[in-house]
């Protein structure tokens, strides 16, 4: 199981809650990672997602220099139909049982209001106004925007996005805010989402062009920004990507390491997902009930510099950016383990 420390299967018959809480590694501190609500077809798909997402959080928190380990929770439910306060309260009770080994927050299908509900039953929750700056998504979006600019500088020689065509896949809490910043910077937007109202809003507000979500990667664009679910970069999609850069918020974008190698072979720069999307967890880790917005913004802006370091090292070592990011994260973990 990729070296996980603990994987808990949760069932609550009163509310119908079925969830998995995966604690990957607590070397650097308690395992922090959001909770995803998604209607997985099979329980095995939920387990795979929980294991991959929690491992990603260990690497994300390590690379971002945070004193936090990696964990993640998934609830098997449709966020638009099945998510009730009772369900989220039951989840909160199960988080509490882990006594702080796992700290939860928002992820796909979960809003700040849901986390307020979870917080009725456990203190091991972040991303609420009582624990800090509230919704982490705007900080994630800020970091992704900085990461896109750093990627553009590396590939095009300038971070100016005016006139660039950008395909944004997924217009949720993070994707919509990234689209807003891209529009403000003068980029031409191509957008897609399985939720039609979000697409209509982006067309009306940003003058965006819409495409089918399954075609977002293959449109004629300079930059592809995946902000939906994971594994979108795979053997079926990579050969069709037109963009020179892939830089987005989605966790676990590469289905397998081979897909990152395929991107490099095609001359496409990939911004490692857990490096570019760390703004949210930075906001969660560094904010206090009194605030901390300035420090969080400063650290989130630094995501651009981290990516530049990663890109330059990858070019020098003739490897992929994600290989460099993994090495950097693992070096810090090894040092902490040895101490
Ligand atoms: N919210 C945060 O602060 C962070 C989010 N992330 C990652 O960023 C991604 C987006 O997260 P959020 O915006 O918070 O989630 P969200 O639930 O607010 O939005 C996800 C959006 O993707 C859409 N979507 C789902 N499947 C799709 C598909 N096949 N094609 C196109 N659109 C699709 C949904 O309809 C929804 O609008 C996720 O992968 C999440 O794990 C990563 C770091 C932090
Ligand atoms: O920013 C968040 O939503 C919490 C951290 C997390 O789960 C993530 O970065 O994927």
UniProtKB/TrEMBL annotation:
Q: Which SMART domains match?
A: ELFV_dehydrog
Please tell me whether the keyword NAD is annotated for this protein.
yes
List, alphabetically, the InterPro entries matched. Aminoacid_DH-like_N_sf, Glu/Leu/Phe/Val/Trp_DH, Glu/Leu/Phe/Val/Trp_DH_C, Glu/Leu/Phe/Val/Trp_DH_dimer, Glu/Leu/Phe/Val_DH_AS, Glu/Phe/Leu/Val/Trp_DH_bac/arc, NAD(P)-bd_dom_sf
Q: Which of UniProt's keywords are assigned here?
A: NAD, Oxidoreductase
Pfam families, alphabetized: ELFV_dehydrog, ELFV_dehydrog_N
The keyword rRNA-binding is assigned to this record: no
The segment(s) forming the Glutamate/phenylalanine/leucine/valine/L-tryptophan dehydrogenase C-terminal domain are: 134-337
User: Which PANTHER family does UniProt cross-reference here?
Assistant: LEUCINE DEHYDROGENASE, VALINE DEHYDROGENASE
Query: What protein family is recorded?
Result: Belongs to the Glu/Leu/Phe/Val dehydrogenases family.
Could you identify this protein by its name? Amino acid dehydrogenase
Native source organism of the sequence: Roseibium sediminicola
């Amino acid at each position: 199981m990729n070296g996980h420390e603990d994987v808990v299967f949760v069932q609550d018959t009163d509310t119908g809650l079925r969830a998995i809480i995966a604690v990957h590694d607590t070397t650097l501190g308690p395992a922090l990672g959001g909770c995803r609500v998604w209607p997985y077809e099979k329980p095995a798909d939920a387990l795979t997602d929980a294991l991959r997402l929690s491992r990603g959080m260990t690497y994300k928190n390590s690379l971002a220099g945070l004193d936090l380990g990696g964990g993640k929770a998934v609830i098997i439910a449709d966020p638009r139909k099945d998510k009730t306060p009772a369900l989220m309260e039951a989840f909160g009770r199960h988080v509490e049982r882990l006594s702080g080994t796992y700290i939860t927050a928002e992820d796909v299908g979960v809003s700040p209001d849901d986390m307020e509900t979870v917080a009725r039953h456990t203190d091991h929750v972040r991303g609420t106004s009582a624990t800090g700056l509230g919704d982490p998504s705007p900080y994630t979006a800020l970091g992704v925007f900085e990461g896109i600019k750093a990627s553009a500088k590396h590939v095009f020689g300038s971070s100016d996005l005016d006139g660039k065509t950008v395909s944004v896949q997924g217009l949720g809490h993070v994707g919509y805010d990234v689209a807003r910043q891209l529009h403000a910077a003068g980029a031409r937007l191509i957008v897609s989402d399985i939720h039609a109202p979000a697409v209509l809003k982006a067309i009306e507000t940003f003058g965006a062009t819409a495409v089918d979500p399954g075609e977002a990667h293959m449109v004629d664009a300079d930059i592809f920004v995946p902000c939906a679910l994971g594994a979108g970069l795979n053997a079926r999609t990579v050969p069709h990507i037109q963009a020179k850069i892939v830089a987005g918020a989605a966790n676990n974008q590469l289905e397998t390491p081979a897909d990152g190698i395929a991107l490099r072979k095609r001359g496409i720069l990939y911004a490692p997902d857990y490096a570019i999307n760390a703004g949210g967890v930075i906001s969660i880790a560094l904010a206090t009930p009194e605030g901390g917005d300035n420090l969080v913004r400063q650290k989130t802006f630094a995501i651009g510099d981290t990516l530049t370091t990663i890109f330059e090292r990858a070019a020098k070592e003739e490897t992929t950016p994600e290989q460099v990011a993994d090495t950097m994260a693992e070096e810090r973990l090894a040092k902490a383990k040895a101490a």
